[in-house]
């Protein structure tokens, strides 16, 4: 029976029989996957911390954020005021 889903096909290849048995590949690939995902998450957190510090101390960012919030609120108010009534 041929699988049509790419994920199922990949899973079948990744879990296929090996000399150590069917359980060896998931036991090896699982921790590798978790380790790589954790490394990427920690990298993103590191960049987010430095970006957060920069944005907290940047007065231009705060001014532009207030301006964007005000424009958004005016836009929402205009939409509600002139919106279609039923």
Largest sheet: none
Determine the N-to-C terminus distance. 56 Å
Structural class: mainly alpha
Mean pLDDT: 82
- Overall geometry comes to elongated
- Quaternary organisation: single chain
> What is the number of strand segments?
0
Strand content: under 5%
The share of residues in helices is over 70%
What is the H/E string? HHH
What is the radius of gyration?
A: 26 Å
What do you see in this structure?
By secondary structure, the protein is mainly α. It has one domain. The chain is built from 3 helices and no strands. It has helices at 6-14, 24-56, 59-82. The radius of gyration is 26 Å and the shape is elongated. It starts with 5 loop residues before the first helix and ends with a helix.
From the structure above, extract its key features.
single chain; 86 residues; mainly alpha; elongated
In short:
This protein has 86 residues and is mainly α.
List the helices and strands and how they pair.
Layout: H1 6-14, H2 24-56, H3 59-82
């Amino acid at each position: 029976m041929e699988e049509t889903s790419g994920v199922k096909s990949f899973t079948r290849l990744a879990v296929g029989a090996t000399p150590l048995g069917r359980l060896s590949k998931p036991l090896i690939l699982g921790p590798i996957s978790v380790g790589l995902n954790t490394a990427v998450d920690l990298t993103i957190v590191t960049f987010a911390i430095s970006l957060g510090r920069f944005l907290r101390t940047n007065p231009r960012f705060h001014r532009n954020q207030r301006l964007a919030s005000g424009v958004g609120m005016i836009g929402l108010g205009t939409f509600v005021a002139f919106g279609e009534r039923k």
